[in-house]
Amino acid sequence: HWNNTSLLLCQPLFLSEIAQPFCLFEHCPFRWHISLHQLGQTQQEIIHISDVDELPSDAAEEREHFVRQGIQSLVVIPVVSDGIVIGFLGFDSTRCKKIWPDDTIALLRIVGEVLASAITKNNMMIALRESESKYKALFEYANDAIFVIKDGVFTDCNAKALSMFACTRDQLIGKTPDRFSPPFQSDGKTS
Questions:
Q1: Is the Cβ–Cβ distance between 42 and 14 less than 8 Å?
Q2: Which residues have a Cβ under 8 Å from the Cβ of 76 and sit 6 or more positions away?
Q3: Nearest residue to 89 via CA among 142, 47, 120
Q4: Helix (H, G, I), strand (E, B) or coil at 99
Q5: How does strand 147-150 pair with strand 84-93?
Q6: Who contacts 39 (Cβ-Cβ below 8 Å, separation ≥6)?
Q7: Per residue in 48-107, pLDDT tens?
């Protein structure tokens, strides 16, 4: 009986979502969860609370928070990328107290790993696009002629290169460099 499922991904500040879950990061006023977060961050352990009424006395604020939301039990799976906790996958039960079976928790950990892989891949793609964008700007706006030659022919060039050869892109791409070289260099040697 899972009544509430949350994917909580964030920077190391406060976690936020519609149901306003408990906070697990360092700026959170819930000190008991800070120690759980630190434990989870270093060991990537799952937080499994089968009965919020049985939380220790130093977790009174959390217990009050959970009770206010009607949460009786919860499990929180860390989403880990490159050894760093980047978020949490949380499930809670509001109808009854629940102990999540080990095989269910193992499956949820796999879901967390899949999410982490997808997030990591997405972040890598974003970084790649940013890198390509920087390269393209450097290539296009350089004050020097830049050519890319592959298999002996021009495959790309910037505007400065077109200006230097006084030609269009279509006239340059796919051609060999010797086609644009003068018969003799300025020192009198052949090209």
A1: no
A2: 24, 40, 46, 47, 48, 88, 89, 90, 91
A3: 47
A4: coil
A5: unpaired
A6: 45
A7: 889 999 988 888 888 888 898 899 998 888 888 888 777 778 888 888 998 989 999 999
Residue type, 80: V
CA atoms lying within 13 Å on the CB side of residue 34: 9
133-139-145 Cα angle (round to 5): 170
| Contact yes or no for 89/77 (Cβ under 8 A) | yes
Tokens found for residue 114? 């899949």
Helix axes 60-69, 31-43, angle to 10 degrees: 90
The tokens of 155 are what?
Answer: 């495959």
pTM, full prediction: 0.58
Look at residue 89 and give its three-state secondary structure: strand
**Alpha carbon distance 34, 63 (integer Å):** 14
Residues in the chain: 191
